[in-house]
Design goal:
186 residues; mainly beta; Porin; eight-stranded antiparallel beta barrel; two-stranded antiparallel ribbon; 11 strands; 9% helix
Length: 186
């Protein structure tokens, strides 16, 4: 039983490229993607001072210059058309720690690669809804636009600007610039 289980796990995680003798060329198709993003903010409590006779010795008063202020976890299902374009449906959980806000966004996004190469820069945008599943979550709209790089091993990374409208009559807004990393499975 233990040997069968180990063999099943090995076959699930071995890439088809390893088992085939020809180079596998993907030209698009359905994908599943999961991602993590965080926003970087400047730390107002940051202090830097030089101590002693030696130039360059810095003490940071226990604080760092940049701090993480929000965390985004998302998953996507979509379709890539050739090597240049992709459409996806996304569901995520966003937590803004400084404001204590929770969001559950669902949105549609489009991505355009700037070249036909396997390694390519891309631009993307998205629009959708934020759902209120209980009193801890906000409801409203979400808008996204980003710039990034896709590598040939299906890892994506870059920067993304996100704006959320929420609250009474959606008059409250929250904008953030985040750094993301994603992994896509075809």
């Amino acid at each position: 039983m233990k040997t069968t289980f180990i063999l099943i796990i090995c076959f699930l995680f071995i890439s088809p490229n390893i088992l085939s003798q020809e180079e596998f060329e993907k030209e698009g198709g359905a994908y599943y993607k999961f991602s993590f993003a965080t926003t970087l903010g400047l730390n107002e409590d940051f202090e830097s001072k030089i101590e002693g006779e030696t130039y360059g010795d810095r003490v940071y008063a226990g604080k760092t210059f940049l701090r993480l202020s929000a965390f985004f976890f998302e998953t996507s299902v979509g379709y890539q058309f050739g090597k240049r374009a992709a459409l996806g449906i996304n569901l995520g959980y966003h937590y803004h720690s400084e404001q204590g806000l929770h969001f559950l966004p669902a949105y549609v996004n489009a991505r355009i690669n700037l070249s036909d190469n396997d390694d390519s820069f891309f631009i993307r945008s998205g629009y959708g809804q934020i759902f209120r599943i209980n009193s801890d979550f906000e409801s409203g709209n979400i808008y996204k636009i980003g710039l990034g790089f896709q590598s040939s091993n299906n890892i994506l990374g870059g920067f993304e600007f996100t704006h959320k409208n929420f609250g009474y009559r959606k008059l409250t807004g929250l904008s953030s610039l985040s750094v993301f990393i994603e992994y896509a499975l075809f």
